[in-house]
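so my prof wants the structure for this chain in the tokens format not the other one, which i didnt know existed until like an hour ago. anyway here's the sequence
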Amino acid sequence: MKLKFNPNLKYQDEAVKSVIDLFEGQNSMLSYFTVSGQQTINSTGQGVGNKIDISASDILENLRKVQKYHKIAPSESLNENHLDFNIEMETGTGKTYVYLKTIFELNKIYGFTKFIIVVPSVAIKEGVYKTIEITKDHFKGLYDNVIYNSFVYDSSKLEQIRNFATDSNIEIMIINIDAFNKSFTDPSKETKANIIHRENDRLSGYKPIELIQETNPIVIIDEPQSVMGGKGEKAVKSLNPLCTLRYSATHKEIQNLIYKLDAVDAYEMNLVKQIEVAGFESQDFHNKAYMKLISTNNKKSPITAKIEIDKLMNGSIKRKTVTVKQGDDLFDISGRRDVYENYIVDEIYCEEGNEYVSFTQKDEILRIGKIFGDMDDLVIKRAQIRKTIEEHFDKELSLNEKGIKVLSLFFIDKVANYRQYDEDGNPIKGPYAKIFEEEYEKVIRKPKYNTLIEKIEHVPVEEVHNGYFSVDKKGKVKDSRETKKGKLRANKDDESTFNLIMRDKEKLLSFDSNLKFIFSHSALKEGWDNPNVFQICTLNETSSTMKKRQEIGRGLRLCVNQDGERIKDNNINILTVMANESYSDFAKKLQSEMEEDTGIKFGTIEKTSFAHIIMENKNGKKEAIGSQKSLEIFNHFKKMKYINGKGKVQDTLKQAIIDNTVEVPEKYESVKEDIVSVAKRQTKHYEIKNANNKRKVKVNKHVFLSDDFKVFWDKIKHKTTYSVEFDTDELIEKCCNALKDELNIKPPKLIYTKSGLTIDASGVNYKEGTVKTVYSDEDEIALPNILKFLQNTTSLTRKTIITILIESETLDQFKKNPTEYMNESSKIIKRVMSSLIVDGVKYSELDDYYSQQLFENEELWGYLNKNIIESHRSVYDHIVYDSEVEKNFAERLENDDEVELYTKLPGWFKIATPIGGYNPDWAILFNKDGERKMYFVVETKGTKDITQLRPSEQAKIKCGKKHFKALGNDVELEVTNSYEDLKSSI
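here's what i got, hopefully its the right format
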């Protein structure tokens, strides 16, 4: 299988043209081979090189034209000795292809022949060379079989440098910055200098660098933010470049920007995959001393640390970040929780990369990112692996028939977790490999994957997964090493690994290969990718230096089919990231990295944001207004309170854009439309829709007429009647009944949530979707002193508490989750003590019922983006909501694939109670692993604790439970404070 490349992508052609147009007016060297272009290397007669015959002022004029076309703030000046230009292209949009095509265009139009591609790492070097290899036929077809030579610089093959200097055809050298950035200006350190800077007899006494300098090469810098640090700038200058073309998605410094395709542009133009995040978080696990070191600080006295702990607050345990110093007792800080006894802070160590906190009487040493007292790490890893396999097979069900091979990528930080060796040196499976094979065999047996198993049951599980790791001289895989800043310490072993990854790139895309699940060391995180990676799962044991952008970068590129053709379909191109954190935390970190790495300031207008706007000057010439005039508009926006002092967009600007009342300085009235356009881009996510968008809510026939809904409605349509018997039970009996009726303690859980991310000018936002419980902890846990706890919280006697606990018959739940049991029992007992509960109500079913036709008789209206949202799973085509909580709940129902159908129960659906009619909120039919269950959500008020509701609401809920129980149709009434809580309870 061979990848195919589209030579007619507009955004790529514009990136190429932005470079070509810089040299407009340059004479073609094809016509004037030895006169105006090619020049002989002085004194050797060996070489040919590049030369320009237009002035720096001509190039500056061309530069401003290019910037004007691309709406980029114009450069004020240009140093003729430093012709440096920046091209910004988001990861996955074909940056390498673009600069290779630029090389051929520069040769075709201007005759330039000498090009050097400088890269920061082994990974990127191998990636570039692989791209040159697989595009060879493509570019030869585009450029009339042009002759060119490309090579990776090797200090043992200096004849390549001679050929580079003397050949009159296109020469492309790929070189790692480390190969020429040592001692290139200090002859006294000759023995420590790179070979490229040393005199060599094979080159007639010349230094290799001198031959390169004479060619006046065009230097392309791939990832300049990594190349140009330290001695990088001087090293690149030592090449004597005609100009430098700097390509990156994350420029740290901008010299002269000529093209910009940032993360927001790429996402909005659908040039990369859409992103969804599957988050894993433990829930209700407070039975151990949970601790996570966030940061340390020695900038002022005393030295402090921020630690995340489980703190008792207002009767509930909340995960909070607290600041501690030496001598602080976590027992006191946690609200005197027994699990934190003897955790007294001893030492706070602040060396960067080695931060830790120790305790006087405990062995635990907290390090940044490492968690104590939470769920077993292997449990979480197993859940991540299992969900990755499930996501993989779900995609295979739809994509295999389209000729698209699905790949999944696992990053690990210890090779031994995947592959180990026995005493004889034979490879054996590590824990992750074993877990993978166990979960693979379980998942593939699910009935929904029957069509897949028919095709792959003959394939041994060992053949569907493999690892790409560095190999030592003995042939054993090993860990790759990183610096403290997360940069790969590459050596020959790592280089061979990248060779293998690149060599197998096309092989992996073919159905001929059984390999689908790839394990790789997390240090090998840049310079390579595969377009058909649809799932990425990071299984690192410790805090990872891998950034979210690096993580998603391995799978951002649009996928290809078996013909090597790029597929452009948003419903297919979705990258799922299996994160060991919540989707919201992932989104926040991703946005923070984008702001840090790219300079994008989401939801912010900058002082130069308007500089590119074209306006007619006093002489009647149209030109960009420039930085100074852009600053005037920026200051005007501050004065109008459209932005704050830092340029952050305010609500006044959002509303002014909606109302079309944005004011600009009078002298810029002619370009007001352009100014507003710039401002609108930064407020896109916050747009307020017209409140007059009134819509009639109609019955959704697809759901309403379905057999599922008929069965659904038959279960709940009957009315009931009730009788009441008042009883004067003793306190103990009331408490026992309440505990039996309401207490439902479940083990701590690992919650899986899958959510889509959107990236626009306002930021990285997430849309909540599927929620599942993927693990419940049933392990034995040390039991705390419950009698002491309940005595303190209820003031009841020890004897009374013992009687309640025994006669309630709920102590078996205490073992499942002691902390949760104590807190919930305390709340229930206190509530029974302070108020009367409707205990004596009894319901019986009537023949009378609510007809399904009533849905069609009801007339509902709403306002788009005010109080209704569009619905596809409900009996109505829109859902009318009364609060943000209800709106959020409805959106989660719409986005959850396990929801078969649902309805917001109409006002006429009432349950009779002694204190008036009761109208539940929602009726939902879930399809969970093929087993259908019915659930009712009673109130979505943001609280699960019914003691926080009015007494009348509490009583109605109790009556509602008895009503549905009397119907006897396996219908349950649930009280929930969030969608996650509902899903975790089923």
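also thought this was worth mentioning. The CA atoms of residues 424 and 476 lie 12 Å apart.
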